[in-house]
Fold this sequence. Notes:
By secondary structure, the protein is α/β, with parallel strands linked by helices. It contains eight helices and five strands, in the order H-E-E-H-E-H-H-E-E-H-H-H-H.
Amino acid sequence: MLTLPTLNYERVVWGQGYRYVVGLDEVGRGSWAGPVVAAAVIFPLEIAIPLGLRDSKQLSDKRREELDKEIRSLAHDLAVGVVEADKIDEVGISQATQLAFKHALKNLKAKPDFYLIDAFYLKNLKKKFQQPIVKGDEKCATISAASVIAKVFRDHLMRQFHHYYPQYGFDVHKGYGTKRHQEAIRRYGFCGIHRKSFNLNYLP
């Protein structure tokens, strides 16, 4: 059964006196190429959730694009953070993901006073001001909105990379390990946005 996100988590935190409650999510963590992108979204109190909002992976490209526009028009504030493949190779994907969240938060105009995150804590922030939510992008409206913003932003980047490296099909698979992508790596080797630290030489 499909789970739709609600404002239940936000209402609890709002009820405790917090006003700038930010939802955070990332995309591209498991991709073989391109950046990891994080998004941070702050909704106004008791916002009407955009119709059909859900985890970005459960939406069509068209609906994600529509929701991206709706979220941007409704949000009190939002921002993205990007960490490129070379930095991922340098520090590892876990640290790169934390950096992407850090960049997204730094790019906000408003200063959050509470953090709702998909699955894990952010480093260097007091845990009492955070709530990691397992499958938060399916349950929590603010995190779900962040997943849409991050996904649409990253997909646009990967389509741009396609113009530089058309032989890999980044406009279709967005850097993930599809059969087409595997075959392209075997034929052409790695390009400038592949994550060399992922040791893709093991490809079957």
